[in-house]
Amino acid sequence: MSVVIRQQDVIDSVADALQFMSYYHPLDFIRAVHEAWQREESEAARDAMAQILINSRMCAEGHRPICQDTGIVVGFARVGMELRWEADMSLEQMVSEGVRRAYLDPDNVLRASILDDPAGERRNTGDNTPAVVHCEVVPGATFELRLGAKGGGSENKAKLAMLNPSDSVVDWVVETVPTLGAGWCPPGILGIGIGGTAEKAMLLAKESLLAPVDIHELRERGASSRAEELRLDIMERVNALGIGAQGLGGLSTVVDVKVLDYPTHAASLPVAMIPNCAATRHAHFVLDGSGPVFQEPPALDEWPQLSWEPGPRARRVDLDTLSREDIAKWRSGETILLSGKLLTGRDAAHKRLIALLERGEALPEGVNLDGRFIYYVGPVDPVGDEVVGPAGPTTATRMDQFTNSLLEHTDLLGMIGKAERGPAAIEAIRRHRAVYLIAVGGAAYLVAKAIKSARVVAFPELGMEAIREFELRDMPVTVAVDSLGDSVHQSGPAAWRERIAAAQVVEVR
């Protein structure tokens, strides 16, 4: 009797997997980050990893998203040639229906981040559909689906190069990783695809990220193929760059490197690289006709028990009384605990604000940036008694194009996001005596606990990109660019790169 795969079983299995992965990190990844935290010598990187691990446990306990960016859903399907379908939807439609149900689940609402008409009006679809589905028809009578939820910050750092056959893949990776900045939220995983054609290399890189973290096992048994040799070599050389957690400088930039390869043309060497962030999320199931598959919850005692304290040197500040003279005393790398009110705004809101300011028109009622901070965030909707859902920072470099105009037209004191700022933004911050702060990417639920009230004040039609007013109590941030223009994302990795190189010289001797 042939195996029948039912449409509803696919939908139910997808919806369950996406809810599951939104609040449960893969345990192999948590173990790897915990091991990196134990080895880390950089205080700033160690602090960032502690927040990531604490956030992960909180999300596992509370069944709330690890990151406010709950990702674009990508699926790799293997469809057995011998099975039959009981369905009136296409495979992509079935997966997208599972996405819709997962992201609109009232018990754990996930953020809708997908926009249609991408080169035009960029309208939010409202339910995070459609998914991106890749399908392979294979021998057998089962349906297998591997799902990932890929955040925009890491997806935006994907790279493709058509190297010469004689070029070094390792050299290209090591030269390229520093150009990614910290917007992909390290520590994470690098997926490398080699060979085939341009699009095949990209698919290999993406697919490789769905495998378990096992670099430690590879080290113990030794490499048995060129792909495995590359994994070990790239891992060592990338970590020697000193980029560290959140780009603050440290020993661990990646906790694993994945490599998949495929035969290629004699004249070609396509190489793709896609990083996975600290909110690594994936799940896997196989349907055999017996019904839907539901993920097995891990035991909470698998998570390390850590506590986070800001330290005695942390500076507590009141945003409601802060002045430019006050922020002039802050220095890059310093820990600040923010209390009081600030405004939020991302790409779409910035574009509208700049248009109003440059036309000499008034900003919307409730949007007065003078003497205030703006937080680059698009939070998850609240559930239950929450005032806001997970609300971690988005990549600040996307706002660089707006920074100088905003500082010129307003008396804005500072900005909060994640990752580094570009040279033009740093110069604008220095010239206007402003500051740029970072919160930890991948600790969104932990950050949200510091938000005591939230209300939409402008552009509600933008959904998660609307401007909100948050009231904070002791939200932990780091001064990334101070009013003198000193950037911790430049000084931190540079210092640790030299320190690691010096230690390697000593080992050789």
Radius of gyration: 23 Å
What structural class should be given to the helix and strand makeup? alpha/beta
Low-confidence stretches: none
The counted number of beta strands is 19
* CATH homologous superfamily identity of the largest domain: Fe-S hydro-lyase, tartrate dehydratase beta-type, catalytic domain
**Major β-sheet annotation:** 5 strands, mixed, barrel
Strand order of the largest sheet: 14-15-16-17-19
Give the number of domains: 3
Oligomeric assembly: single chain
- By DSSP (H or I, 4+ residues per run), the number of helices equals 15
Question: What separation lies between the terminal Cα atoms?
Answer: 68 Å
Strand content range: 15-25%
Q: What's the level 1 CATH class of the largest domain? A: Alpha Beta
Roughly how much helix do the residues carry, as a percent range? 25-40%
User: What value does the average pLDDT take?
Assistant: 96
Per CATH, which architecture of the largest domain?
Alpha-Beta Barrel
